[in-house]
Amino acid sequence: MKRRRALVAEPVVAFLGLGGNVGDVADAMRRALERLDSNPECSIGAVSRVFRTPPWGPVEQDWFLNACAEIETRLSAPDLLALVLETEIALGRVRSVRWGPRTLDIDILLYGDAPVSLDNLTIPHPRMSERGFVMVPLADIAPDILVDGQSVREHAAGFADEGLEVTDIDIRP
């Protein structure tokens, strides 16, 4: 039996990071956003451009596609995480190697204004300000939000030399 999701009193604006480098990643990201948007407690807002980004981490692999999306939700942060993980699995995500190749990865970057600290969820995402593949797309849709005391726009400017490439791919639902 599926457990009932906890709802918050007022809708919360959250930001998601999406990426992948195996298979038709753009289609997987588009389908993920459609799936999240079809949930009665979620509504997709702004969606960034899609960037082609160099691999990050210790595993040698192909380049990624990355984007960010704004979502308005009445789901609690843990329940939004559960929905995101269900969406990844439904679209073929298999977790085998940390920072390795993947069909789809969705991270909750920000959830409203308050931090979240649980065993399986930390918001703001603990390493987001260190990653151009997060900050550059996030600057498309939320440039003035502060992360670690700086605007997303300022963080994104620091990644100008990382080789991110804008694509003409549209993943909006």
From TrEMBL:
GO BP: any one term: tetrahydrofolate biosynthetic process
Domain of life: Bacteria
Every 7,8-dihydro-6-hydroxymethylpterin-pyrophosphokinase domain range: 98-109
EC number: 2.7.6.3
PROSITE patterns: HPPK (PS00794)
The UniProt record lists the keyword Transport: no
CDD domains: HPPK
Pfam families from the UniProt entry: HPPK (PF01288)
Enzyme class: transferase
Protein keywords: ATP-binding, Folate biosynthesis, Kinase, Nucleotide-binding, Transferase
Similarity remark: Belongs to the HPPK family.
This protein's name: 2-amino-4-hydroxy-6-hydroxymethyldihydropteridine pyrophosphokinase
Originating species: Oricola thermophila
